[in-house]
């Protein structure tokens, strides 16, 4: 499926949310697997990010409609990477300043691809701002603290955790406990400390007594 075909497919799914959100979400879950498989080194990343994000949101007592829109943002958060050069995505050495700038375009590119399909601001903003930092040093807008949409703050934690515990061309995966420790160390700078605390409370008991994940 090329970019044009994918955009048309996403447009149909997005418009379908007005008629049957459950069916549209099921279709989106399927297409997210295709998207994931088209981005180098991905192996279910979008689905896992969505699962982590939904666990956090449920602990925050999100309503059903809010959960649906968060899942849409989570499944499509890396959509813009489909347009990027695989040589940059697969690079095993440090990125140059120019290459970093290219990578940092992917949230905005993803939003541009979806503007005609998903008309919900919380969906688009969740994608656009998931690389903002809590201290304001992230991208693309340099938002800080509560100016960053809540969905973006949730996806940021879920995305980082899954990235750290998954294989990447430039490093081996961290253990789950080490990844949780990394989230704690960046709480208040990169990540919303409240979201980190909720995620730690959810995930740490799963791994505390597993020998392979200490």
What does this 3D model show about the protein?
This protein has 214 residues and is an all-alpha fold. The protein has a single domain (3-208), classed as Hypothetical protein af1432. The protein is globular and about 40 Å long. The protein contains 11 helices and no strands. The mean pLDDT is 89. The N and C termini lie far apart (40 Å). α2 runs parallel beside α4 (64-75), α4 crosses α8 and α10 (176-185) packs antiparallel against α11.
Overall pLDDT metric: 89
Rg to the nearest angstrom?
A: 17 Å
Q: Tell me what the CATH architecture is.
A: Orthogonal Bundle
What profile does the largest beta sheet have?
none
Question: Element order, helices and strands?
Answer: HHHHHHHHHHH
Number of strands: 0
Summed up:
This protein has 214 residues and is an all-alpha fold.
Topology:
Elements: H1 3-16, H2 21-38, H3 45-59, H4 64-75, H5 86-89, H6 97-103, H7 106-114, H8 121-128, H9 150-164, H10 176-185, H11 193-207
Helix pairs in contact: 1-2, 2-4, 3-4, 3-9, 3-11, 4-8, 7-8, 8-9, 9-10, 10-11
List the main descriptive attributes of the protein structure presented here.
214 residues, mainly alpha, Hypothetical protein af1432, 11 helices, 0% strand
